[in-house]
Every structure is written in C-alpha cells, then in structure tokens.
Amino acid sequence: MTASKQDFEARLRQIGAERYHDKHPFHHLLHAGGCSADQVRAWVINRYYYQSRIPMKDAAFMSRVDDPALRRAWRSRIEDHDGSAENEGGIERWLRLAEAVGLDREYVASTEGVLPATRFAVDAYVRFVRDETLLEAVAASLTELFAPKIHAQRIEGLLANYAFADDRSLSYFQNRLKEAPKDVAFGLAWVLDRADTAEKQDAAANALIFKTDVLWSQLDALHAAYVTPARIPPGAWQPGTGLIKKVARAS
Fold it and tell me: Residue 250 has what pLDDT?
C-alpha cells in the first residue's frame, strides 16, 4: 500500500534516526576530543576521498537528466564543492583543514593514502548514482537531511578539544550548515512527489539505507585501521608520511 507523503517522509527520517553515521564510535571519539593527531589526520585523508567524489557523482547524475529544470537545480551542488568565481568551494575548504592538521595538501589531493575500504565504498556510491534510477539516485542524497546536526556537533566538539580548530580550518562545516538545507529541501520534495507507488517508496528507502551504509562502512574501516585493532592495510596512509615539511621536522 502506498504511504502518504507525510508517512513516507517519516519513514525516511526514521532511517536516519537508526542508521546515520553520527552514531558511529569514531565520531563520538572525534567530537569528544579523544582522537590523537594521527587519527584526526587519517580521518581528514579518507574523508577527502568522499568529498572529492561528490561533484563527480553529481556530474554523473546530471549527464542522465533530460529535464533542464532539474539540471539547473542540481548543478549548484557541483559548484558548492568545486567552487566558482564567488565561492572557493568545499574541496578547497577541506584541503585547508588538511593543512591545519599538518598534512601536505598535495599529498591529500593525490588520494594516495586512502584506505581500500574507503575507495570501495565511495566508488560504489558513484556507480549507484550513475546506474540506478533517478529516483534512487536522488533518494540516496537524502542523508543531507541529517547532516546539519552532525556538522554542528563537529564544530562544537573540534573547537572545544583541538588546537588546530578555528573558524578558518572549520569553514567547510560552517558552510555546509547553509548549503545542506537548501539541497535537501529540493531533493526531499522531488522524492516525495515521484515516489508515488509502494514499489517506488521501497526503492527510495532502500537507496537511502544504501547511502547510510556507505557512510558507516567508511568509519568502520577508519576505526579498524587507526583506533582498534589499529591494523593499517597495505597501501594506506602511515603516520609520519604526507606531512607538511615543518611538521615532519618538528616530529
């Protein structure tokens, strides 16, 4: 039976309440000040891979869209990350965070030290958006419903617990507090309008579950490699590498 828009939205929000990665132990550790400098660096390196692939995901989505109105509405997401004449963009802000924690920006941008599981998860998300229905692709983006809360927690926790944290280094998260609500308002309305059968509602809900799994699995890999059992897989970032030279000398 097809649910009403109100009930279907409640179903989507319940997925976030149960499965969003704000509940992951790594985020609790990070926000409470329990991460070492190297654990923070590992998080920044691996999260960069996700950030850098978001505009690629959005470009793949737009290449499939026939409706110019939908393309116009969606393309601001690419500019939010890649930047424009008026906006330096989220990728640049993330690289500024990388420098603030002592990492060389060119090393981070190379994605050389990214965990294999991070690559697999993020690349799976890009393929999902490229290959599945437009409804499922948009629904997968609705993790943005839950993002402002985690960004606010992160800003508060990092400012309270880490010397590198200030308005400049945390500008990525501060900007997402403004950008994410705009994106999700459009995406949610689009999904609610088009998920007009029980089958489409199930597909959209499963797409959102898939995306929460993508986010959660990245943190599982990070926690296993750099917290416990602290078993770093071959090819992944090793502490002491990829640092700004003055930081490396000081260490």
Answer: 47
**Which CA distances in Å does 129 have to 36, 140, 220, 238?**
35, 8, 22, 32
In single-letter form, the type of residue at position 247 comes to: V
Which DSSP helix (H) or strand (E) runs through 51? helix 37-62
SS3 state at 24: coil
Q: Give the global pTM.
A: 0.94
Domain locations along the chain = 5-250
> b/e string for 219-248 if b means 16 or more Cβ within 10 A?
bbbbbbbbbeeeeeeeebbeeeebbbeebe
Q: Which ranges of the chain have pLDDT less than 70? A: 247-251
Q: Tell me if 46 sits within 8 A of 116, measured CB to CB.
A: no
Angle at the Cα of 14 from the Cα atoms of 13 and 18, rounded to 5 degrees: 120
Residue-level pLDDT at 236:
98
Q: Is 101 in a helix, a strand, or coil?
A: coil
Residues 5-250: name the CATH superfamily.
Heme oxygenase-like (1.20.910.10)
8 A C-beta contact, residue 118 and residue 127: no
